[in-house]
Amino acid sequence: MVYPHGGESKVEMPFLQVNYGLSIQACNAGLFISTGQGKHPNRIINSYELIFVRSGVLGIQEENQAFQVRAGESLLLWPNRRHWGTMVHPPDLSFYWLHFYLKNGESGPAALDIPQHTLISRPEYLTELFRSFLNDQESGFTHHPGCDFLVALMLCEVTRNIPQSICTGNVSILANHAEVYIQTHFREPLSTSLIAVKLGCNPDYLGRVFQKTYGKTIIDRIHECRLHQAHLLLLDGTVNIEEIAWTCGYDDVRYFRQQFKRWKGMTPTTYRKLYTQVHINTR
What we know:
3-stranded antiparallel beta sheet; 8 strands; globular
């Protein structure tokens, strides 16, 4: 910038300095996919380990406590305690894992009460946090402060309470396991019968329990998850309608358009155009 008297000023870029003061230090993470062989290693490590099971059942023991961690559940293992697998990994087992430290061994003034073994209320959100961390790790940003924040967000998600209606009684727990399965597998071919087989129960019974707990049928919930994902992809604006349909679990593009119109009151194409117009005219 040049001033009238010929002087020049130095233009400095403004930065907001924030002292985030997190006691969490991210380490590394990964996604384990079973080959149907082996068990979790017998070991003692010096970091915390957060495990989030996507599918199957993980049998693991820490010191004198045994756990069976099912799809949609998390397990937190403590440092300097021996843990080991108690069963051969089933072929359908897959889980995210994350190692982290607490700086100075303290949890800080705003401590979280993190359950060691719990059912996750929003598995799709925790999955996205793991994916974000793995993406940063792949890009070499593991030691960036943002990764520490991602770990903090994961731990916050683990502390999020399951609604009381889901915590009371085996019936509602069964419905929630079905809900978790839908949220993590909606892109695949799904039906009430298939989910019942995975959960080891009667399809008619599962359907009644699910509707009583959530006020909607399992099929409606499957469509809801698929169409919500489709809505996000439409707003992205870079993926064509056919690809969106296939990505969200619809083999028949015409059927996808019918379901989307029933859900949003307009076709996917109209919805995308409307969003684009609103976006252009909004500042």
